[in-house]
Amino acid sequence: MLNIGCHLSSSKGFLAMGRTALKIGASTFQFFTRNPRGGSAKGIDPQDMAAFLELAREKGITSVLAHAAYTLNPCSAEVRIRNFALESMADDLARMEHLPGNMYNFHPGSHVGQGVGAGIALIATQLDAVMWPGMSTTVLLETMSGKGSEIGGTFRELREIIDRVGMAERLGVCFDTCHVHDAGYDIVGDLDGVLAEFDAVIGLERILAVHLNDSLHPRGSRKDRHARIGHGHIGLETFGRIVNHPALKNLPFYLETPNELPGYAEEIALLRRMWRG
Ligand code: FE
Ligand code: FE
Ligand code: ZN
User: What is the CATH number of the domain that holds 183?
Assistant: First the structure.
């Protein structure tokens, strides 16, 4: 079965997210670990978590993906901002142990003029500080569009981060279709070629999750504006190829399209119809 879900609000807890996922035909979901504007995360309610884990086991909800606040910048030039990212990620990863064996995705950050090399070194240092032997969560670096001074707009940059991290065996990549397209990779005209390049630079086995988003802007625009599936420059046909690609078809897929729940339900149903198994 196609393992697909979407981004859900975590404001009502885990059991509520699990029920919502099932209601819209999803078998997985993504959530923010904390308010993107920063601030502290809600504590885990053990009863809510136990009820969710039971529901997940019963109904086959797997590969829950936590997303770090996208406002964090682990490679800021300012120590205060870097430390905030460090503390947030350490706290998120500690709480993830209540949801064992899942994944935690984050944006590598923006080097803000320090240069790509300096940014990559800072990101690796931050990861070394928040990961520990025996942790059950896999940490994912998201492919980025490369807007501004964002790191992760090329596969090479992600590879260089992975190479510098001590616990690289616990690292993977979340492949965001809008970001990869906006960064300039031709997933519309040559999906096989882009994935071959990913394989040569990083290794396809590192892709552990896919963010399915169409793009409002043309390839290479470095804009990062998501569109609904089939309503952007990537187009429905390409999404059919993506969910059926042998290297991707058994991965979990997460929609981050501009939708309310009924729109997500429609996109999930549409992609399920396109999946050939
Ligand atoms: Fe993201
Ligand atoms: Fe994304
Ligand atoms: Zn995005």
Answer: 3.20.20.150
Q: What is the Å distance from ligand 1's center to 233 Cα?
A: 19
Indicate the average pLDDT of the chain.
97
Q: What is the pLDDT of residue 111?
A: 98
| Nearest ligand, CA 256 | 2
Neighbours of ion ligand 2 (CB under 5 A): 176, 211
For position 277, what pLDDT does the model report? 84
For ligand 1, the distance from its centroid to the CA atom of residue 70, given in whole angstroms, is: 6
Q: What is the DSSP string of the chain?
A: ---EEEE---TT-HHHHHHHHHHTT-SEEEEESS-TT--PPPPP-HHHHHHHHHHHHHHT----EEE--TT--TT-SSHHHHHHHHHHHHHHHHHHTTSTT-EEEE---B-TTS-HHHHHHHHHHHHHHH--TT--PEEEEEP----TTBS-SSHHHHHHHHHH-TTGGGEEEEEEHHHHHHTT--TTT-HHHHHHHHHHHT-GGGEEEEEE-EESS-TT-----EE-TTSSSS-HHHHHHHHH-TTTTTS-EEE--S--HHHHHHHHHHHHHH---
Q: What integer pLDDT is reported at residue 38 of this predicted model?
A: 61
- Note the ligand closest to the C-alpha atom of 179: 3
User: In this predicted structure, which of 42-46, 89-93, 241-245 has the lowest mean pLDDT?
Assistant: 42-46
- Give the number of domains in the chain: 1
Query: What is the per-residue pLDDT for 41?
Result: 78
pLDDT, tens digit, 9 for 90 and up, residues 200-210: 999 999 999 99
Structural domain including 236 reads 4-274
